[in-house]
Design a protein that fits this description.
The protein has 15 helices and 13 strands. With 376 residues, it is of the alpha/beta class.
């Protein structure tokens, strides 16, 4: 029988897809008998995330440790990095799994420091998009990708959540000189239970972070265009939080949509799914977004942009996919509104999704990467 592992997941922002991925992974790892802990930023997230942390607290033998971790590189990094290293050192992990750009840097550097003191630590990194979203031709992109190349010397294994992400890494950073594995995000069995729209459901739903990268502004512009094209009013719900939220409220007011668009604080995806008949994912960039998997597994029709790993879920030639452009998004929204049955038939089946995106498969493949790294 293989001995249990001491696993620490390190990441900056406990919101969105990264946090969802870590929650699913820790749940499966605890069920497998491992001792697991989390280290992340203390300034990101709100009441919704606090409730999620509270639900996890009793399960994690190595605890939940939150400390200020700033998003960008700066003077505050020195103090923040030292605090984080002190926490991780006390937890005595034999696996440090970093998620996202900042979590990846911290996990690999601190794992290397622990090795200096003769601790046997596996250093794994999941980009989750992260710095890979930068343009490699810009000064910022060149700096980040140079850092990624340098960090390769401190990495034992790379875990990619989509083939798109792996291809982006090869193009922008280079061919990984270390073992790397594609492991899709996974869903739990209850998430394949359909969610029906409420009797008073809106026409469309946006759920996600309120930042331009995720396209809330495209969604709002598309709503206005749908009304112009169809000559009828449409209703929408927008669920999420973020620094750009006031800008989107102002955009809704400017376009005269205030009476038909409602904003909500973060809630569980399945709660949000009942608020509308069709989901819209208008992202400008993604890796392998959970919200797409969750919505499709719940039987919701969806308009989504063909960015990142999304085409790997639908199929690259799916007619449900569009460019991240308000006019194109509006065109598909009109189709979903006026031909609901035909549009719903474009979605991948639940059987297809179960076969490729199960949480049990995800956790087993990641544990295999841990074990192989420790045995190497």
């Amino acid at each position: 029988m293989t001995p249990p592992l001491r696993i620490v997941h390190c990441f900056r922002s406990p919101v969105g897809g990264i946090f969802r991925h870590v929650r699913d992974l820790t749940e499966a790892q605890v069920a497998a008998g491992h001792k697991v802990g989390i280290v992340c930023d203390s300034k990101t997230g709100g009441e919704f995330e606090e409730k999620l942390f509270a639900g996890m607290m009793d399960q994690l033998a190595l605890g939940i440790h939150r400390t200020p971790i700033q998003r960008h590189i700066g003077p505050g990094d020195v103090a923040g990095a030292w605090r984080t290293f002190t926490i991780i050192k006390e937890l005595q992990p034999n696996v440090i799994h970093g998620h996202g750009a900042k979590g990846g840097v911290y996990a690999r550097l601190f794992g290397s420091l622990l090795r200096v003191s003769r601790s046997r630590v596996a250093r794994l990194y999941s980009p989750h998009g992260g710095s890979l979203h930068y343009d490699e031709n810009t000064a910022t992109g060149k700096v980040f990708f140079l850092l990624e190349r340098l960090m390769g010397s401190f990495t034992d294994h790379l875990l990619f959540v989509s083939d798109y992400e792996r291809r982006a890494y090869r193009k922008k950073v280079g061919e990984p000189p270390i073992p790397n594995t594609l492991v899709y995000n996974g869903l739990r069995a209850p998430e394949f239970i359909p969610v029906a729209a409420a009797d008073n459901a809106a026409d469309f739903l946006y759920i996600g972070m309120m930042r331009d990268l995720k396209g809330p502004d495209l969604f709002i512009d598309a709503l206005a265009q749908v009304e112009m094209r169809t000559g009828r009013t449409v209703t929408a719900e927008m669920v999420g939080d973020g620094d750009d939220l006031p800008k989107y409220r102002e955009q809704v007011a400017r376009l005269g949509l205030s009476e038909r668009v409602r904003f909500h604080p973060p809630m569980t995806a399945r709660e949000a799914f009942s608020l509308a008949r069709t989901i819209v994912v208008p992202s400008r960039a993604e890796a392998m977004p959970y919200i797409v998997l969750e919505a499709l597994a719940a039987g919701k029709p969806m308009v989504a942009t063909a960015v990142g790993g999304i085409p790997e879920i639908f199929g690259p030639d799916s007619p449900a996919l569009v460019a991240p452009d308000a006019a194109e998004i509006a065109g598909k929204m009109v189709q979903a509104l006026t031909e609901p049955e035909a549009f719903a038939a474009l979605m991948p089946s639940g059987e297809e999704l179960r076969a490729r995106f199960g949480a049990d498969v995800m956790a087993a493949r990641i544990e295999q990467a841990y074990r192989e790294t420790l045995a190497a």
